[in-house]
Amino acid sequence: MASQVWVVVQLRDGQVSRISWEAVAAAQKLAGTQGGKAEAVVLGTGAAVGAAAADLAKADLAAVHTCDHEALRAYTPGGWIGALAPAIRAAQPAFVVFPHTYQSVDFVPRLAQTVGAGLLPEVTGFTEAGGGLEWTRPILGGKMQAKVRVKGEGTVLVSVQSGAFPADGVVTGGGSAAPVHPLAADLSGLKADREILGYEEVAGDQIDLTKADIILAVGRGVGGADKMGPVEELAKALGAEIGASRPVIDNGWLPRDRQIGSSGQTVAPKLYIAAGISGAIQHLVGMKGSTVVVAINKDPGAPIFTVAHYGIVGDLHEILPALTEAVRAAKG
Predict the structure, then answer these.
(1) Residue 19, exposed/middle/buried by CB under 10 A (0-12, 13-18, 19+)?
(2) Each residue's pLDDT tens digit, 255-267
(3) Residue boundaries of the structural domains of the chain
(4) In CATH, which of 3.30.420.40, 3.40.50.1000, 3.40.630.30, 3.40.50.1220 is domain 209-331?
(5) Inter-residue contact 40 to 9 (CB < 8 Å)
(6) d(CA 33, CA 41)
(7) pTM for the complete prediction?
(8) Residue-by-residue DSSP string for 133-187
């Protein structure tokens, strides 16, 4: 019998979040190593749960479990643990996958302790090796990648890093919808452990680079805030968002919400252009999930070229205007 793999999704504005779809892709891949299909779990209340379940049912999943309860109207760690813990104890899935978000960081360790499960946070990949699974996750603030194995038996809770498993990799059900049914758990005593007084959007006008399909990122090589003209012109021509490595942010050339890397945003666009970025590991962990990477740098030995699909050696202030002209000409 194949081992169960669950994926617990999170909703954003009433819809399955992008990083949750990435977690679904990871769970599908993981379930394949166990000889079965993944099962999704969605928590909340009202129409949003039903809509999310319908969307999830289109993916190639064995089932979609819904947990609709008033105590889950707003996220609280007690509510989520109260719903998931009895279900995990009853079903004893081999793995439960979560998107690695502030929410999962808040409650998943406590859930692991509650159910006596193992915990693998911020996973970026896994491979089959030596009859088991070898997992990769960042350590030391993303400066190094550790390869680890799980010791012992029982359920393991896994959170997957944003961009590690592209949402485009979700396998659809090919026209047959996965069955949807209530999560098998006793919710009679379920209650939120906090009273939610309200929500305040922090820096709501900041740019969310995780939603961008095309990102033009610049590094120290751009030379200064007064030399951003060619960057802005190419970004406009491509319909791209502008990102940056940490030195650009630290020098005040761009606002902090544009930072990509271990201390900034983790992105996975379809096209990532890195201009004047050397490719320090702290930056690479934030963009390695990109589908296509184009690197532009004066130094042919820059580490960024080791992860690039296409590389251009030269001065970005000469190359970017030429690319802008080419893009405009192609658009007619």
Answers:
(1) buried
(2) 988 999 877 888 8
(3) 5-182, 209-331
(4) 3.40.50.1220
(5) yes
(6) 20
(7) 0.77
(8) EEEEEEETTTTEEEEE---SSS-EEEEE-TTSS-GGGPPB-TTPPPPEEE-SS--
